[in-house]
Specification:
alpha+beta; Heat Shock Protein 90; about 25% strand
Length: about 475
């Protein structure tokens, strides 16, 4: 690959050569530029190669070892990844070109549907110079307009007649959920399903993967989407050593969603609340939060990746995961909405399974706070996105990182509600008595030092009436 790259007449918008390391920031900007450039030029990948003289393109070798290089106390690779949005899955390879020359190459996938940003700015290469993408609106527009054939539009089953459509798909479910009358003839049903992109008519009829995913009476009838069935596993205790029970969804998401959420909630532990006259049972976790997180896992999964959405229930937490890495950084889930499955997301919203706008995470955090639960945690690893919601803990049992995360999520929730976090609002979130305001002050101070929140008015001298915003506001 290196031998082929150096044969190019010169560097391009998707290939850059360097001899040695200059700065981490320069690499971050270059990754953004190359990913964006590869997209514009219809390249699947772009390349940043260390060990090549950029003028002559001679293979000289490099002293730079990206895999072990540190930025502060953090591995360079992780430092870069967490500052890119979306988090593109670049790879670093280091090898001996020969006994005297070492090469380090970053293989950078082309972005899809949106420009890649580094530290909230997107870049592009013009000849061999990295420039801000905002200075070149025509190039920016090309990235936004770039389309790939979506998984949802591909065919799941073809060469069908009208009776086959109603045999494989629950057409009644669509009209019931949309709250519109069922057509008086089959042609009316077919017309609506074609309009929604659930089926396609050519010489015969075909069911799209979108149609199968949502309305399949049995997902096993569709080999290409069968593996996207959601799985729910209940474990005994706090680890995966012993499984108590497992449920695999066999129906399309639209048909099975309500039953799925109901079954999940039936497996969750409950707290007993004694009211004035009645003894009532309350779920340990907010059911509405579980519903939103399950819907998000279905909607935002990367359908092109191997794997399936999964809900894992432990004694002290619930983990809801889906294949693929998110298009926005987890820190921005609450205020940003971007789905790689636009048609699936649109239909799921119109069918009433999730929020009209946004990710619904504001609702999750809102109810999480009402239930006095620890902050949710989002982890992206091994090409999966996992959201964890934890059972109740007292403030004293939260560690420092959990308190900071809770403080950040509270600041985000306030901000998207057009309010600002204060010492008082944080005390209310944690149920801290007013006379213990210093406890809240310490958590705020730690969050400020961690750079996840910032002061609304840094010039103000008043600590008592200070208000705070999430770092990105």
């Amino acid at each position: 690959m290196i031998n082929e790259l150096v044969k190019q007449p010169k560097e391009s918008e998707w290939v850059e050569f360097k001899l040695n390391f200059h700065s981490a920031e320069e690499i971050g900007e270059t990754i953004s530029a190359i990913s964006n450039g590869a997209c514009i030029h219809n390249q699947k990948y772009g390349y940043l190669v260390f060990g090549i003289e950029d003028e002559t393109q001679k293979i000289i070798g490099t002293t730079f070892k990206a895999k072990i290089h540190k930025k502060g106390n953090e591995d360079l690779e992780h430092w870069l990844l967490t500052r890119l949005n979306p988090k593109i899955d670049f790879e670093i390879f280091e090898f001996n070109y020969d006994e005297n020359r070492k090469i380090c190459v970053f293989i950078i996938p082309a972005t899809v549907n949106q420009p890649v940003e580094f530290l909230h700015k997107s870049y592009v290469r013009i000849n061999s110079i990295t420039r801000k993408l905002s200075e070149f609106p025509q190039k920016q527009a090309k990235i936004w307009k770039k389309e790939m054939v979506a998984f949802e539009k591909e065919i799941a089953k073809k060469n069908l007649n009208i009776s086959d459509i109603t045999k494989y798909l629950s057409t009644e479910t669509y009209f019931d959920l949309m709250k519109i009358p069922y057509p008086s003839n089959q042609e009316g049903v077919i017309e609506k399903f074609i309009e929604e992109g659930l089926i396609i008519k050519e010489k015969t009829f075909s069911i799209t993967r979108l149609g199968a995913l949502l309305f399949a009476k049995n997902l096993k009838d569709f080999e290409s989407v069968e593996r996207k069935s959601i799985r729910v596993i209940v474990y005994k205790g706090k680890n995966k050593v012993e499984t108590e029970r497992e449920q695999v969804g066999g129906k399309g998401y639209a048909i099975g969603f309500e039953g799925l959420v109901e079954w999940i909630n039936s497996q969750l532990p409950a707290n007993e609340e004694i009211g004035r006259a009645l003894r009532t049972e309350s779920r340990m976790y907010p059911e509405i939060a579980i519903r939103e997180l399950v819907a998000n896992a279905l909607i935002h999964q990367d359908l092109t990746e191997k794997g399936f959405p999964m809900v894992e229930i432990f004694a002290d937490r619930i983990e809801i995961s889906n294949p693929g890495t998110p298009l926005v950084t987890p820190e921005r889930f609450i205020d940003a909405y971007l789905s790689r499955n636009d048609k699936l997301a649109d239909l799921m919203r119109r069918l009433g399974f999730c929020e009209e706008k946004g990710s619904g995470l504001d609702k999750v955090i809102f109810y999480n706070e009402i239930y006095q639960l620890p902050p949710i945690q989002v982890i992206v690893s091994e090409n999966r996105t996992r959201v964890t919601i934890y059972s109740y803990k007292t403030l004293n049992h939260l560690d420092k990182k959990e308190k900071i995360r809770a403080c950040y999520q509270h600041a985000c929730l306030k901000y998207v509600s057009n309010e600002k976090m204060t010492n008082q609002s944080l005390r209310e979130r944690f149920k801290i008595d007013d006379h213990n305001y210093s406890i809240a002050s310490r958590i705020i101070r730690d969050a400020l030092e961690d750079n996840v929140i910032k002061e609304d008015d840094p010039e103000s001298k008043s600590r008592k009436f200070a208000s705070y915003l999430p770092f990105w506001a």
